[in-house]
From TrEMBL:
It comes from the Eukaryota. Keywords: Signal. Transmembrane segments: none annotated. The keyword tRNA processing does not apply. This is Collectin-46-like. Residues 1-16 form the signal peptide. PANTHER family: MANNOSE, PHOSPHOLIPASE, LECTIN RECEPTOR RELATED (PTHR22803). Residues 33-146 form the C-type lectin domain.
Length: 147
């Protein structure tokens, strides 16, 4: 049984179906963010968010990144976000809900397919200021959902 910890309710702009928000609207707003307390693969994390009608967080703007950084727990955990390059090889990262990324926050030397591995999914690295790292999708991280 998954347990959910609600870590934040930022300003409003709650809509019934986030997948139908326009790209511009989604970058401008600050969603509500929710983290699960169990680590799991990227696919399972995506499914966990969707099971509650949320999506994996996509972080479409500096404003969203700043809001998240201010409220993520102090444990320096690593979190899955809804960004991947399952198709291709670091040329084109896409959102889990579709479309190419419009904002990124890669750590130095990322994305790198480290040691030639298929690093197709993106995590926030807690010990590095929650910057982005591409890493294998079957690793277990905490799901970070948005609503
Ligand atoms: Ca890839
Ligand atoms: Ca990659
Ligand atoms: Ca990497």
């Amino acid at each position: 049984m998954l347990r959910v910890l609600v870590i934040l309710i930022v300003s409003g702009f709650v809509v019934a179906d986030p997948i139908k928000r326009s790209t511009v609207g989604r970058a401008a707003c600050i969603p509500e963010y929710i983290v699960y307390t169990d680590e799991m693969t990227w696919d399972d994390a995506k499914a966990a968010c969707e099971s509650s009608s949320w999506t994996l967080a996509e972080i479409r703007s500096q404003a969203q990144r700043d809001a998240l950084k201010a409220i993520l727990p102090a444990e320096n955990n690593n979190y899955w976000i809804g960004v991947n390059d399952v198709v291709g090889d670091n040329e084109n990262y896409e959102y889990a809900t579709g479309g190419s990324v419009i904002y990124t926050n890669w750590l130095n030397y990322e994305p790198n397919n480290h040691n030639g591995a298929a690093e197709d999914c993106v995590e926030l690295r807690g010990k590095k200021g929650y910057g982005w790292n591409d890493t294998p999708c079957d690793r277990k991280k905490f799901p970070l959902c948005e609503f």
